[in-house]
Design brief:
The protein is an alpha+beta fold. A hairpin with a 5-residue loop joins strand 3 and strand 4. The strands form two sheets. The protein has a four-stranded mixed beta sheet with strand order 1-2-4-3. It has a two-stranded antiparallel ribbon with strand order 5-6. Helix content is 51%, strand content 10%. It is built from eleven helices and six strands.
């Protein structure tokens, strides 16, 4: 649009970690000449993120194979798995690390498996017990710099959620995209998990979504990626979602506010 300054648009897109995705959009629509330098930045962002995503997907594939050999079936969520599985291109969704969900009873075995591959906690990390008690995840890094967060819950323990993780793992399915394969939650559980993650990071007062300036507000806070993930689940899996079941499940999980 003529009234949008390219520099301001770049700042908003960058703050929301959407530069790689914008490369795909502008490749279709084609910008005017005054947008040329911004287009180049989108293109570079996509190229860098594609390499980043494939490095992480390859690392996840190795870790997943080792975990499965140890008899630990884990689920991979968000990050490059959302890019490849929901957006249709691993390079378009920016991310920082891998997110792995292990059965709570096997969390320590999963950690030991990653440890045997060279994954270690950050140098100045607090003790493992602190994260086990207060965060329900461990953050580890491989010798090559791949960061992985090993979760056994979708949120921290003070939310008092009652997620049925047995059902989440029982209904998980194998996905394949961009030549990689991984296990992920089924569509209903994937949507609820994404809504929980959005609610965790994007705290808004009740009724905020009805305000005229809602989109401007969430864009200004850098929250658009979280909302886009939910939208992409609805677009990709809409026909499979069980809308009779989802509200009842949200009630049972105590996440209806999400």
């Amino acid at each position: 649009p003529a009234d949008v300054a390219p520099g301001d648009f770049w700042d908003c897109v960058s703050a929301n970690r959407l530069a790689a995705l914008m490369n795909l959009r502008f490749a279709v629509t084609g910008p005017s000449l005054r947008w040329g330098h911004v287009l180049k930045r989108f293109e570079h962002a996509y190229q860098a993120n594609l390499i980043h995503a494939f490095r992480h997907l390859a690392a996840a594939e190795d870790a997943d194979a080792r975990l499965r050999r140890a008899g630990i079936e884990c689920l991979w969520i968000r990050g490059p798995f959302a890019g490849a599985g929901l957006y249709g291109d691993a390079g378009v969704r920016c991310f920082s690390d891998l997110d792995l969900l292990a059965p709570e009873a096997r969390r320590r075995s999963a950690y030991e498996t990653l440890e045997s591959m060279g994954y270690k906690p950050p140098v100045f990390s607090l003790p493992r017990r602190f994260f086990e008690k207060h965060h329900l995840h461990w953050r580890v890094e491989s010798p090559s710099g791949i960061v992985c967060e090993l979760h056994w819950a979708f949120d921290h323990p003070y939310k008092l959620h009652r997620v049925d993780y047995d059902a989440v793992f029982r209904e998980a399915r194998r996905r394949t995209a961009d030549r990689f394969a991984w296990n992920e939650p089924g569509p209903d559980h994937l949507l609820l998990a994404a809504c929980m993650h959005l609610s965790k990071h994007c705290r808004l007062p009740p009724g905020a979504a009805d305000d005229a300036g809602f989109l401007r507000d969430i864009a200004g806070r850098g929250w658009l990626t979280h909302w886009l993930d939910v939208l992409m689940i609805l677009r990709r899996h809409g026909a499979e979602l069980d809308w009779d079941r989802i509200p009842a499940m949200a009630d049972a999980w105590r996440v209806k506010e999400s």
